[in-house]
């Protein structure tokens, strides 16, 4: 006998399996053998739903008087779902044969039969029902998401880290307008620029002009990057109220990036943090290559913990852990965070992920689950690293906000205004946004305007 695959009815296809079609007489004999208690099988159709507690068959809605099927498969009427499905049929009297039991599903007058395969011990003591166990779902959500922070601070690094790798010089007025738009979206911290040598980063040669334009803006933190004491003095002279220093967890990357070893860079930053303390200026510390290095490969978590601890000891109020080349996954990020949190309080840590392999959001999520509540990101996914070829941009701020909104975590960021800021800079750069959320939402808006 040839068995041909069929698909269940439209109503059941979402919840049941595609199954082979058997002759009606064969199916009847199988069903009657295992469920002799049911006398009128052609009247009562059984559809098996997969819920958090296993398979729970429900009655065919077409055979229920006055029932209207909703999208979730539950019955909408004046009576409750529980009342609609009474009386229930308990399954504890079913035997457990060595093969799965076949159940009958009568699909209308055509008497075309289909069946689902399940094991009786999975539904022992269950009832026929289409209701979802909301308590179990809430318990599961609590286990998975219960440890997440209620508020996440987003540090926007687009104007500095996002633009520093652009080949074509972005005019100062565009940078200033971008910063203003980002501030207007509600972002609490916007990294404005960097006081580095124009020889090394030509894109940020206008740092003084940018600071002149934004120095009087209130209600937002506008840190700037300073690689040494000379850069710190220039930043303070131009109105900077908060600075950042950066060290690498990789010796090779440190030498290629700032032309000195890790310990030599830390010695430089002690001078900077000491001067900042005298001026009552906050210092943020960056650690780069916390997962991998373009030269050395894998970076041991203990090396990351060593650099992070040194930055904390010299007075950094916050330490951002950066996956500079974007090779991290939850499997490599978790051990790194475990090592760092043994020497630095978790409330003083931030994460900074590049999205080279598309792992940023998953890495952020596990970081949140481990207690991190500060996330660096770049509008429209701008960025890269001039000393790490192939590294793509930072995780897009729009994508981060979209995910956090979906988790019910507050950011105080207006996503609509943030999308506007991303659209502004992308139009100037002449390319599409690197944010998946921005692209999807812009398409949805465009489609809605055509209706």
TrEMBL record:
It catalyses: (3S)-3-hydroxy-3-methylglutaryl-CoA = acetoacetate + acetyl-CoA. Gene3D superfamilies: Aldolase class I (3.20.20.70). InterPro entries: Aldolase_TIM, HMG_CoA_lyase_AS, HMGL, PYR_CT. GO terms for molecular function: hydroxymethylglutaryl-CoA lyase activity; metal ion binding. It comes from Dendrobium thyrsiflorum (Pinecone-like raceme dendrobium). PANTHER family: HYDROXYMETHYLGLUTARYL-COA LYASE (PTHR42738:SF7). Pathway: Metabolic intermediate metabolism; (S)-3-hydroxy-3-methylglutaryl-CoA degradation; acetoacetate from (S)-3-hydroxy-3-methylglutaryl-CoA: step 1/1. Pfam families: HMGL-like (PF00682). Belongs to the HMG-CoA lyase family. Keywords: Lyase, Metal-binding. Its EC number is 4.1.3.4. Residues 152-419 form the Pyruvate carboxyltransferase domain. This is hydroxymethylglutaryl-CoA lyase.
């Amino acid at each position: 006998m040839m068995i041909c695959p069929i698909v269940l009815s439209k109503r059941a296809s979402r919840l049941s399996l595609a199954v082979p079609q058997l002759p009606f007489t064969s199916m009847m004999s199988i069903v009657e053998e295992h469920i002799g208690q049911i006398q009128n099988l052609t009247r009562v159709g059984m559809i098996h739903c997969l819920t958090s507690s296993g398979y729970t068959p429900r009655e065919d809605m077409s055979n229920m008087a006055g029932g209207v099927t909703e999208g979730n498969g539950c019955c909408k009427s004046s009576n409750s779902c529980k009342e609609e499905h009474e009386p229930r049929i308990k399954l504890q009297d079913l035997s457990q044969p060595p093969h799965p039991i076949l159940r009958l599903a009568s699909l209308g007058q055509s008497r075309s039969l289909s069946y689902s395969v399940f094991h009786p011990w999975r539904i022992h003591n269950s009832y026929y029902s289409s209701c979802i166990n909301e308590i179990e779902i809430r318990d599961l959500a609590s286990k998975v998401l219960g440890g997440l922070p209620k508020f996440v601070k987003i540090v926007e690094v687009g104007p500095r880290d996002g633009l520093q790798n652009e080949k074509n010089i972005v005019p100062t007025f565009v940078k200033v307008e971008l910063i203003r738009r980002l501030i207007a979206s509600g972002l609490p911290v916007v990294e404005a620029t960097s006081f580095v040598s124009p020889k090394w980063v030509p894109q940020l040669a206008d740092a003084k002009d940018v600071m002149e334009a934004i120095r009087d803006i209130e209600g937002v933190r506008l840190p700037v990057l300073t690689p040494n004491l000379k850069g710190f003095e220039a930043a303070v002279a131009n109105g900077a109220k908060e600075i950042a220093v950066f060290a690498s967890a990789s010796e090779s990357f440190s030498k290629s990036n700032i032309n000195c070893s890790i310990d030599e860079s830390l010695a430089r930053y002690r001078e900077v943090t000491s001067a900042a303390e005298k001026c009552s200026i906050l210092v943020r510390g960056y650690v780069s290559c916390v997962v991998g290095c373009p030269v050395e490969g894998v970076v041991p978590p203990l090396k990351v913990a060593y650099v992070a601890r040194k930055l904390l000891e010299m007075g950094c109020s916050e330490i951002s852990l950066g996956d500079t080349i974007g090779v991290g996954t939850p499997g490599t990020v978790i051990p790194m965070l475990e090592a760092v949190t043994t020497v630095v309080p978790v409330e003083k840590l931030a994460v900074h992920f590049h999205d080279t392999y598309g792992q940023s959001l998953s890495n952020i999520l596990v970081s949140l689950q481990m207690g991190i509540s500060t996330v660096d990101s770049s509008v429209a996914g701008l960025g890269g690293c001039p000393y790490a070829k192939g590294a793509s941009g930072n995780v897009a701020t729009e994508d981060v906000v979209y995910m956090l909104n979906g988790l019910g975590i507050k950011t105080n960021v207006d996503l609509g205004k943030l999308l506007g800021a991303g659209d502004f800079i992308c139009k100037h750069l002449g390319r599409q946004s690197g944010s998946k959320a921005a692209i999807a939402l812009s398409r949805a808006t465009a489609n809605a305007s055509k209706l």
